[in-house]
Amino acid sequence: MAIVEMKKLTLLALKRDREKLMRQLQKLGCVQIVEGTGGDEALAPLAAQADPREAQLAADVARMDAAIARLTPLAREKRGIFEPRPAADAQLMENIRKNQEQILGWVAQVDEVEQERLGIRAQIARAKAQKAQLWPWRAMDEPLDQIRDTRHAVLALVSMPPRAWGAFAEGLAALDPAPSVQLCEKTSEAQNALVAVYRADGQALEALLRDCGGTRLSFDIPLTAKEKIAQLDRYIEKEAPQQMAKLEARLEEIARHIREIQILRDLFALERDRLEAASRLLETREAFWLTAWTPARDVEAVREALCKVTRDVEMEFSDPAEDEEPPVQLRNGSAVAPFESIVGMYSLPAYRGFDPTAVMMPFFLCFFGMMMSDAGYGIIMAITCFFAYSKLKKQNRGGMLWILALGGVATAIWGYLLGGFFSIDGAPQPLGFTFTSDPLKSLMLCAILGAVHLFVGLGVAAYMNIRRGKIWAAIFDQVFWIVLLSGLGVMFLNVRVGAYIAIPSAVGIFFTAGRERKNVVSKLVGGFSALYGATSYVSDVLSYARLFGMGLATGMIGMAFNTLAGMVAGSWFGTIFAVLILAVGHTFNLGINALGAYVHSCRLQYIEFFGKFYEDGGKPFQPLRNQTKYVDLANDGF
After folding, report:
1. Pairing between strand 348-349 and 6-14?
2. What kind and span of H or E run contains 91?
3. Alpha-carbon distance 243 to 124, whole Å?
4. CA–CA distance from 556 to each of 75, 551, 591 (Å)?
5. What is the dihedral of CA 278, 279, 283, 284, to 10 degrees?
6. Which of 170, 483, 554, 575 has its CA 20 to 30 A from that of 379?
7. Which residues, in sequence order, are CB contacts of 38 under 8 Å at separation 6+?
C-alpha cells in the first residue's frame, strides 16, 4: 500500500552506443525517459531530431494491425481465450526481420484485396441503384438508347410526382395535335410514362415539365430495360459473389502467414517505441544526454545493466526536487493490486499523496456485496470468476475477474446475512430482517456503514497531516469533525450524552476552522461556515441509501421472475418454460445488477470517500519496455 519512490536518472554517453543502451533500457522496462530540455529554451537547440523512420514504422504498424484484424477470422489456428500468447525467441525474430520484405508484401496484398472488395461493393450499390431506376421501364420493348427525338417528333421518358400528374396530363391534352402517352409503372415517388409530341410542341413539353416538377430521363443503354435488369441481376447475384469468393480465397492463403505478420508488427512497434523515446534526448555531434525516472528499488539493476553495455557511460541517480512531480506507480500486494484500476479510473494520487487502494478495497467489496445481496448470485460469480482468473493469472491478465470474484464472495456473505438466495422466500435471516421486510432497519444499517466509511476517510486525512508534521491540523480539521459527527450520532440514542460529546468539538471547529485567515472577523466567519458545512456530511450519509435501493431492486426483480415462472409451471411444457424464464431472468438480473453495483460502489469511493482526503493529479509511470500485442518475448526477444 504505497506510492513507489522514484529516482531521477541523468545519463551521459556516446552516440555510437545509443542504440545498444536504448535496447537495454527497453529490456529492463523500468525507466521512463522524459523531455531532456525540461522546458528550458536554452537547451532547445540540443534537442534530438525526430527520426523519419518513426513515422514510417507507425504507419506500417497501423497497416499490419488492420491486416491482422482482417485475417484473424480466416486463420486456421484459433487461440482460446484462456490460452497464453505464443512466444517468440531471438532467433525467430531475427528470421522474421530477414523476411520482412515478403511479409510486408503480404500486408500490401491484403490492402489490395480490401480495395478490390470496396470496389465490388461500390459496383453492387451502383447496380442496385440503376436497377431501381430502370424497374418502372421494364415493360418497354425498345432498347433504351433508341428512345430519342426523331426528325418530326420529340420522345421523352418522363418521371412525374404523382400529385402533379393530373396537371401535367391536362397540359398535354391542351396541345394540338394531341400527344401520345404510354403509361409505365407507377411508384410511390413518381408516375412514369413515355410521351411523344410533335417537334413543334417540344418547347411546350419542356415548359410543362418544369412547371409540374417532372424530370426527363435518358439512358445510353443499347438494351431494353428488362434485358439490362437481367444483366444487373446476374452481376449482383452471381458475378459479384464469385469475385468476392476469389478475393476471400486469396485472404485465406495469406492468413496462413498471420503469425509472421504478428511478430513483425511487434518488432516494428518495439523499434517505433525506441525511436519515440530517443526523440526526447539531448545530443551533440558525439554524445547524448538522457533524463528519466526509475523506481528507487531498480537503481542498482539499471546501473549494472547499462554498465554491461558500455564503459563509456556516466549515470547519476538523485531524489526529485521539491518543484518536480515524478510519475506515479502504485505498489500493492497481489490481492489488492487489481483494485488499482478503480483508483486509476478516477485519477492517480499525487506523487507525494496517499495510495488509497488497500483502504478502499474492503469498503468497495462490502458495498458491492450489499447492493447485490443474493447468496446464489454470489456463489455463481465467485466460482466462475475464480476459475477464469486462475486461467489468466499467469498471463498477467484478468484483474477485473479477481475484483468480481471477491465481489462474489462479498455478495454471498451479504446474501446469507440478509436472507437472499435467488429471491426465494423462507431463506434464513441471520440479521433478523431483509431489505423487503424492514426498510427502516435496512436504511439504518446503510447509514452506519456510510458513517464508518466517512470516518475512515477523515482518519486517512489526519494520517496524511501527521505524516507531514501537521499534528494540530489533524486535530482541528479531522479529529474535531470525527468527534462532532460521533456526538450527533449518539444523540439519536441519548441526547444529553451526545450533546456532551458534540458541543466541545463544535466549539473547537468554530474557533479553529478560520485560523489561516488574517483578521478576527474573517476567522469567526470561517468557523461559522465550517460548522454550516456539517450539512454536507448529512447529505453524504444519505447518499449511502443507494445500498438499500440497489439491494432492494436485486431482490424484487428476482422475485418477479420467480413469480412468472411459478405462474406458467404445472404441465411438462410449462415446467420447461418456467426453467427457461428462471435461467434467463436470473442471468439478466445478475448481470444488470452486478454492473450497477460496480458503478455505484465506485461512485461512493470517488465522491464520498476520496472527497475527504484524496490529492489527485498523478501522472502514470510509463517506462520504455518490451510492450507487444500479439506475441510474448522469450529470452528477451533480442
Report:
1. unpaired
2. helix 90-98
3. 12
4. 47, 9, 15
5. 120
6. 575
7. 291
Cβ 634 vs Cβ 94: under 8 Å: no
What are phi and psi for residue 519, nearest 5 degrees? Answer: -110, 170
Among residues 104, 118, 102, 112, which one has the least CA distance to residue 61? 104
**In whole angstroms, what is the distance from residue 367 CA to residue 363 CA?**
6
Q: How many CB atoms lie within 10 A of CB 588?
A: 13
- Strand 632-633 relative to strand 87-88, pairing: parallel
List the one residue out of 193, 207, 196 whose CA is nearest residue 149. Answer: 196
Do 488 and 502 form a contact (C-beta atoms < 8 A)?
yes
CA distance 355 to 340: 9
Return d(Cα 509, Cα 473) in angstroms, integer.
Answer: 11
Average pLDDT, consecutive stretches of 10 residues, N- to C-terminus, the chain (638 residues) = 90 94 94 84 80 92 95 81 78 88 95 95 95 88 86 89 90 85 86 89 88 89 91 94 95 93 94 93 92 95 94 93 92 93 93 94 96 94 93 82 96 93 86 88 93 94 92 90 87 85 85 78 77 82 92 92 87 87 94 95 94 92 92 67
**Residues pairing with 282 in the sheet:** 47, 289
Please answer whether residues 578 and 402 qualify as being in contact, where contact means their C-beta atoms are separated by less than 8 angstroms: no
Q: Give the distance from CA 490 to its chain's centroid.
A: 45
Angle between helices 100-134 and 258-278 (to 10 degrees): 110
Mark 240-257 as b/e (b = at least 16 C-beta within 10 Å): beebeeebeeebeebbeb
HSE value, Cβ hemisphere, 13 Å, CA-based, for 443: 7
Predicted pLDDT at 636: 52
Q: Which residue in the block uniquely carries the three cell numbers 397540359? A: 171
Could you give the 3-state DSSP secondary structure of residue 491?
A: coil
* Cell numbers describing residue 160: 412525374
HEC readout, 566-611: HHHCCCHHHHHHHHHHHHHHHHHHHHHHHHHHHHHHHHHHHHHHHH
Q: What angle do CA 596, 447, 586 make, to 5 degrees?
A: 30
